[in-house]
Design a protein that fits this description.
Largest sheet: 6 strands, antiparallel, barrel
Structural class: alpha+beta
Order of helices and strands: HEEHEEEHEEE
Strand content: 35-45%
Radius of gyration: 19 Å
Distance between the termini: 37 Å
Shape: globular
C-alpha cells in the first residue's frame, strides 16, 4: 500500500506541475492559505495545521459537505457526512430524505450544532452551526424530503 500511495502522490505532483506549466499558476482562493515546503512544491498539511484552520474575516469558502457528530437522540455519537446543496455566504442548505426520521429529529429550528466540520475543496474547518429553517418540500423531484438551512457560526 505504501508504494501505491507513493506512486499516486508522485503522479499527482507531476500532473500538478504539468497543469501549472500549461495554464499558469492558479489564482489564490480568497480566505485559504496555500501551504508550501519550498517554492512551487505543495505538501499535505500536518494535523496541527489542520487543527488551527478556521473561517476568518467573514470570508466563507465554498462548503461542499459537512461532517457532524450528533450529541443527542437515538443516533447520539453517530457521525454523518451530509452534502451541501447550496450556499450563500454563511448559510448552507442541506437536503435529507424523509425516511431518515431519526436523523431529522436532530435538526430542530434554533438548535446549535456543535462538533461540525465544514469541508471545502481546500480544507476542512471545525466550527458550529445553527439550524435556521427546516421545511418539508411539497413537490418536485425532492417532494416529501426536507430542506435544512444552517448558519455557519464561529466556535
Amino acid at each position: 500500500i505504501e508504494s501505491l500511495m507513493k506512486e499516486y502522490f508522485q503522479n499527482a505532483r507531476v500532473c500538478h506541475g504539468f497543469c501549472r506549466a500549461m495554464i499558469g499558476p492558479a489564482e489564490p482562493v480568497k480566505g485559504v492559505e496555500e501551504v508550501k515546503d519550498s517554492e512551487n512544491e505543495l505538501r499535505l498539511r500536518t494535523l496541527e495545521e489542520v487543527e488551527e484552520l478556521s473561517i476568518k474575516d467573514g470570508i466563507y469558502p465554498d462548503i461542499c459537505s459537512i461532517i457532524i457528530t450528533l450529541d443527542e437522540g437515538p443516533l447520539e455519537g453517530g457521525t454523518f457526512v451530509l452534502d451541501v446543496g447550496f450556499q450563500e455566504k454563511n448559510l448552507i442548505t442541506l437536503f435529507i430524505e424523509s425516511h431518515k426520521k431519526e436523523l431529522l429529529e436532530n435538526f430542530r429550528i434554533g438548535k446549535k450544532l456543535d462538533n461540525v466540520q465544514f469541508k471545502s475543496t481546500a480544507a476542512i474547518y471545525k466550527g458550529a452551526g445553527v439550524v435556521r429553517e427546516k421545511e418539508k418540500m411539497g413537490s418536485g423531484i425532492r417532494g416529501g424530503d426536507y430542506r435544512l438551512d444552517i448558519s455557519i457560526i464561529h466556535p
